[in-house]
Amino acid sequence: MRSSCLALSLLALIPLCHAFVGNTLSLRSASAAALKHQLPHSTSLAFPQPRPACRAKKSTSPHMAISVLGALTAPLVAVAALGTLDGFGKLLINLPRIIEYQFRYANRIMQRGNGCQPTEAIDVLRIKLDESKEYRFNALKLFVKYDTDEDGKLSIDDLNRCLKNEFPQGVTDGMISSLVDAMDSDKDSQIDCYEFLSAVSGSSKNADKLLQEARESQLDSAYEECKKLTSEYAKTFFLATLAMEPLQAKATWAIYAWCRRVDEIVDGPKADPNPETQRKLLEEWMARLDSMWSDRGGQAGLDSFDLAFKDMLQQYPGSDIEPYRDMIRGMQMDIDDRRYETWEELYLYCYRVAATVGLMTLPVMGTAKGVGVDDARTPAVALGIALQITNILRDVGEDARDRGRIYLPIEDLKRFGVTEESIFERSRNGGAVDENYRNLMKFEIARARQYYKEAEEGIALLAPGAQLPVAVAAELYKGILDELEKNDYDNFNKRAFLSREQKLLAVPPLWLKTITGGWEKERKEVEDKERAQAEV
Fold it and tell me: Interhelix angle for 500-515 vs 464-486, to 10°?
């Protein structure tokens, strides 16, 4: 979430509270002329001649908050408003001097009281910044972040949460009370966007329009977070999403981010090692899923990833909740240090943690004309099974060494004369693989390729725009199996992966096959062959 500009502006409000509870700042002298000289030329401000200082009687009024607010927020408002301009660097370098000068100016305001005309060039700077749509827009981003029920208002509790979360080191109850008093102009214990903008930037102009834009920007930022997560943790998969239509890619990133976060509960580097804690967290995740699915509670308790996920569900109403529930159940299977006796047991695990992804993305991908979602389910599941087998084969050594886990079915190990002890030994100490292990890997690779074959036969059932990314995903993961073979089936001492060049070179032939109707032709050939065999 890009809320740094607004965070700066709210941070600027905190000294205001100090001014309310006790004007005890000790300030060194600073030069206004130096400030004017050092401000970046890119601001293009025309500074008028200062007006004579008024001789107002010293007093303190309720309007003093606005005057002090203007003085204290000006330099940080400048950072927020000018953050994308060339002058940002100069302004940032001089920020300590500017802040010091502004505190000095704030003290003068407190001493002179209300009613004085602007006497310094910085007053003109703040007026210019108050007219900045960009700054007010950024200010509302944080408002939207904490307006979880989307009613255009922040309760006092929301404001408390906002300040304590964004500035945990500097906020006290007294400060928050002062801010509420300054913002809550109609004394209804609710801070609406107009009051918020008036207090933060001195203007509530175009608040409704800016509020809607801020909400849309928040959603865009949420999808960007999902994109970043996908590109960081699933490079091969992410490359496939780049072949999708933009809306499909965004939805797929949101789905991946949801899946990744479930996996992190059990398998992440920060996962709690206590199985009972993991079970409890998964139960909470299931409840969170049900709440988002039923649209209960608005945005309360949701983070940026959740916002993107929830929007994805609204964009693709044909989504089914069961694949998501099944994935959580799959993670529950992964909690205990259990082994899979048979392929059927491992298949169930693969279905829950991987094949479900194919079912999740089906509504996003869409199907070809005349093809129902149910018709495309079987190849979608097959692709998920193939991908998970590939992951298991690639990571045999890593899983045994780092997690003490072996996912390969016990019946397969016995069939090829491979012991669990030998796998753990090689994972810890290295050493060449023997012929028994090679034969085991050949068997598992053949199984995976059979599922890839089933998946590729179903590519023609997908909508034209979805065929290429699915084909790319299948081809790139198949390439990992090829690399495992080139490594002499050694997944203890070497990691099977495709280079960037290999990935890029794999795409053009698939693109050509897709645009020329190659997947449809292959499927028709398979159907004709099956029909001929049935007649015989």
Answer: 140
